[in-house]
């Protein structure tokens, strides 16, 4: 099986690559080739050397022929520009998120039309497809049947791609699957340009002894998922057989990956519990209307039943999420923990 990950040098792409290189199987079959595509060269990914792995560097639009130089069985499409970038630069978002996806989908369609395999295309969408509009307020609990009304260019671009994938799947050109990711926290490394980036920063920076700004009111509730559970969810959606019943993907609808609902105040209280007052006092709450407009429009409470049918559960608590970060990134933590 030849498997491709686009955005393989990114946060989740790297974790997904590491996971697949660890198991070396997909849906019970052996992975014979793992193609890692990204315009950025990952600084270090020790497992990603060796005969199994092939790197395709460069912008996806320019390098799609290399990605499809041999038949693609499964393509995890993670390459994207993040929310605040897309809000700041409309054209960049359209190119990175819509044009790139369209290019990949055209190549996958070309492969099956030419008699090659129908590629399984797994798209990392986002909870940002949902948004509350005064004329169409969100219900208190969101499910896959809730009408997505995005309130950002990023969410709109993700939704456009979802529709395209659904139509190409309906026509039999691809076997498309859409996993809508919650905000993934705690993200290691330097801050990124996602509007939700502070949801990692308010934990990660104080744990490293650094100050952090919380740009929203602490009463805001958010929907989170840990990196490990998110990657597990993406793989589960990818591997599931279609059909009805437990463990099967039973309709063309996307899957909202399971959400842990937590308020920012609860997150800060967990930080105080884990790392003490000195670390927690490094966070300054200073609401920024631009960030609040994006992150505040996203829903926080999800009906996780469709994910549960695939044996996916939300993180048990935010404390568990922080402990996972401490265990996975001891090098990034300088403050004492409980
Ligand atoms: N991390 C989250 O909280 C979150 C939440 C919801 C959805 N998602 C989605 O999950 C996916 C992965 O997220 P992430 O946090 O790993 O993002 P990331 O920014 O860490 O990684 C994205 C990678 O894609 C690459 N890339 C972007 N455009 C490209 C292009 N045109 N050609 C080649 N490479 C390109 C970037 O170089 C980067 O390495 C994205 O599609 C994102 O929208 C993430």
From TrEMBL:
Coiled coil: none annotated. Keywords: Carbohydrate metabolism, NADP. Residues 3-210 form the NAD-dependent epimerase/dehydratase domain. It comes from the Bacteria. It holds the Pfam family Epimerase. The keyword Ribosomal protein does not apply. PANTHER family: ADP-L-GLYCERO-D-MANNO-HEPTOSE-6-EPIMERASE (PTHR43103:SF3), NUCLEOSIDE-DIPHOSPHATE-SUGAR EPIMERASE (PTHR43103). NCBIfam families: ErythonDh. This is NAD-dependent epimerase/dehydratase family protein. It comes from Streptomyces spinosisporus.
